[in-house]
Design a protein that fits this description.
Distance between the termini of chain B: 75 Å
Number of strands of chain B: 16
Strand order of the largest sheet of chain B: 8-12-11-13-14-10-15-16
Shape of chain B: elongated
Strand order of the largest sheet of chain A: 2-1-3-4
Structural class of chain A: alpha+beta
Largest sheet of chain B: 8 strands, mixed
Radius of gyration of chain B: 27 Å
Number of helices of chain A: 5
Shape of chain A: elongated
Helix content of chain B: 25-40%
Distance between the termini of chain A: 53 Å
Strand content of chain A: 15-25%
Strand content of chain B: 15-25%
Number of strands of chain A: 4
Oligomer: heterodimer
Radius of gyration of chain A: 21 Å
Largest sheet of chain A: 4 strands, mixed
Number of helices of chain B: 15
Order of helices and strands of chain A: HHHEHEEEH
Chain lengths: ~140, ~500
């Protein structure tokens, strides 16, 4: 039996619904839901949706970045960050999802897809700890 | 040392520290089974790439699927939780290597476990490597002296050969391998003993035995114990052969023992089933042949142009009730250059080592035998073959004709000569003297019960009186008429005094 992956379904949904709008799109989406129900795949809808989001982002060259920081970032830093990310991923649009986490102590951490740039104080301290314990071993 | 001093030192260390800023690929642990984790994310990861879990435990990516990666965990997996972060390293799994690893006991990822402190090493070797190609190789022509008469005479092993040791439990497979290591003293050979899924008590015993025999100086033990995760058993032999390759790259000869590959296959089966790879015959995955063939292909003899050196492999396989036609035994038999077959029946008959000479072969080793040994072993093989054929008649005793009786008597003595105690390897030149006395008929009228006594007496006596013969063997690997005359005289003299 060949299995259909979540990614396959997400790609198919994107392909049929891409150029449609309004009523036509809602008909297509109803059919998709019916199809998933028939194949007992509604349980996977969360994963399919996240795949679909990834595909749409890729096609529209949108980059979603999660920014975790200890304190809210100043507007200037955010602008710079957006600029850097636009260049790095040659993106058209950057969506910054900000989150606050006091446990990071300071600095911030950017997550794009599964790439991470960690500039937090917490990470630096962890690195220092590693460095000190390793050099004495 | 006062506190100020410590603080100063710390300050100095901290000055040298620079935080690294880099883009890292991360994933998240989705599922966790025994020693296996399913991880999301980790895009662009390579097969068998090393990953690091949040708690510092190392893993290896084995299954690359569309939306997840199957990772085997090399370490304490109880510290890992669902949702933990996993980082890629961009490196294939590697182990630290150095000359100071000799005499040490390390685990499957090269970390010492013998309590003798950390290993200092600057070099690392990847554990998976493609075996040396055809142009770098040379055919087997130098012998490995195992010190076991039946092997050195009838199933000779050459440097760079892969000789399987196969048999049921408790037939002396490990003992054979340990004897071979003990005999490498002064033979210019590095030994690596890989213990896979063995009891820790057994390993301890082996280590103590090697230490006692002065063999740990040139030996490394790689251990993946029975209590450790299957993933460690799975990589242990590759770690062992990487250590062996490190020494081979220096032009040295290495002997590696995998004890045993049946447990290795079982560990791999466990991992594969947990990773949901389709099971095949005996529930082993489809690539279980490749698992062993890629390992044993790394045993080779390199030619001078490529730096020389060799790796001789002694894989061990444990059979169930003597069934050598099971899946893993047949696989490994077909990969190796011959097998030494040990039998329970022979073992309980008192024939130890319990080697079944009829089913054991060495496909390439005879070209590595020294000339003198080849000469005596040829006749010995014939004597033994005839003996086996006639053995069934031996019960009839007096009804047999003279020549048959003679053959039977010779055969009985040959079997007796080939018996050997554990941890008592015999030097090649002594083997030649004993076998010479046997095949030339000097032992024919010595009672079977006194053969052992005769043998040890002869070796002691000839050491002082057959110097020309020994010198010839040492220098040109063969005797001349002069040496042979001397030996004959020595044996005749000894026989007179023996009775």
């Amino acid at each position: 039996m060949t299995t259909i992956s979540n990614n396959d379904i997400a790609r198919a949904i994107y392909a049929v619904a891409k150029d449609k709008s309004g009523h036509e799109r809602s008909v297509i989406l109803t059919k998709v839901v019916e199809f998933l129900a028939r194949r007992h795949m509604l349980g996977k809808s969360k994963e399919i949706l996240s795949q679909l989001r990834k595909i749409i982002n890729k096609e529209t060259r949108t980059v979603e970045a999660n920014v975790l920081s200890a304190k809210a970032l100043p507007a200037k830093t955010k602008k710079e960050l957006e600029h850097i990310l636009t260049k790095r991923y040659s993106a058209k649009e950057i969506i910054l999802n900000e989150e606050l986490d006091p446990k990071l102590l300071g600095g911030f951490r950017v997550e794009v897809n599964n790439e991470v740039i960690d500039l937090t104080l917490k990470n630096k301290i962890a690195q220092l700890q590693n460095f000190l314990t390793r050099s004495t071993a | 040392m006062n506190t100020n001093h410590i603080v100063e030192n710390l300050k100095k260390e901290i000055e040298n520290f620079k935080a690294q800023i880099k883009v890292e690929k991360v994933g998240v642990v989705l599922e966790l089974f025994d020693g296996i984790a399913k991880v999301s994310g980790l895009s662009d990861i390579r097969s068998s790439e090393m990953v690091i879990f949040g708690s510092g435990v190392v893993g290896v990516a084995l299954n690359l699927e569309e939306d997840a990666v199957g990772v085997i965990i090399l370490g304490d997996f109880s510290k890992i939780k669902e949702g933990d972060e996993v980082k890629t390293t961009g490196r294939i799994l590697e182990i630290p290597v150095s000359d100071s690893i000799l005499g040490r006991v390390v685990n499957a990822i090269g970390v010492p476990i013998d309590g003798k402190g950390a290993l200092k090493s600057t070099k690392t070797y990847p554990i998976e490597k493609v075996a040396p190609g055809v142009v770098t190789r040379q055919s087997v022509s130098e012998p490995v002296a195992t010190g076991i008469k039946v092997i050195d005479a009838i199933i000779p092993v050459g440097r760079g050969q892969r000789e399987l040791i196969i048999g049921d439990r408790q037939t002396g497979k490990t003992a054979l391998a340990i004897d071979a290591i003990l005999n490498q003293k002064g033979e210019n050979m590095i030994c690596v003993y890989v213990s896979i899924g063995q009891k820790d008590s057994k390993l301890r015993k082996i280590e103590a035995r090697l230490e006692q025999g002065g063999a740990m100086k040139y030996t490394v033990i790689v251990s993946a114990g029975a209590s450790e995760a299957a993933s460690l058993s799975y990589i242990a032999p590759y770690t062992g052969v990487s250590i062996a390759e490190y020494f081979m790259d220096q032009g040295k000869d290495v002997l590696i023992i995998y004890d045993d590959l049946s447990k290795h296959a079982v560990a791999y089966r466990e991992i594969s089933l947990l990773l949901r790879r389709p099971p095949g015959r005996e529930a082993y995955p489809g690539d279980v042949f490749y698992l062993h063939s890629r390992l044993l292909e790394r045993a080779c003899r390199r030619n001078e142009k490529y730096g020389g050196g060799s790796i001789t492999a002694f894989p061990i396989i444990e059979t169930q009730a003597g069934d050598i036609s099971a899946y893993i035994p047949t696989n490994v038999i077909s990969i190796t250059d011959g097998q030494i077959f040990l039998e329970t029946d022979l073992f309980y008959k008192g024939i130890r080592p319990a080697v079944n000479v009829g089913s054991s072969v060495s496909r390439v080793g005879s070209s590595a035998q020294i000339k003198a040994m080849k000469k005596v072993a040829g006749t010995l093989k014939l004597d033994l073959a005839q003996f086996r054929e006639l053995e069934a008649f031996s019960q009839f005793g007096s009804d047999l004709d003279e020549s048959t009786k003679k053959q039977l008597e010779r055969g009985k003595r040959a079997v007796e000569v080939l018996k050997q105690l554990q941890y008592a390897p015999v030097k090649t030149e002594h083997q030649v003297v004993t076998l010479y006395a046997l095949v030339k008929g000097f032992m024919d009228n010595v009672p079977v019960a006194r053969i052992k006594e005769f043998e040890s007496g002869l070796i002691d006596y000839s050491g002082n009186n057959a110097k020309v013969f020994y010198k010839e063997i040492a220098e040109s690997k063969m005797w001349t008429d002069k040496g042979e005359e001397q030996l004959k005289k020595v044996i005749t003299d000894f026989k007179k005094s023996f009775n």
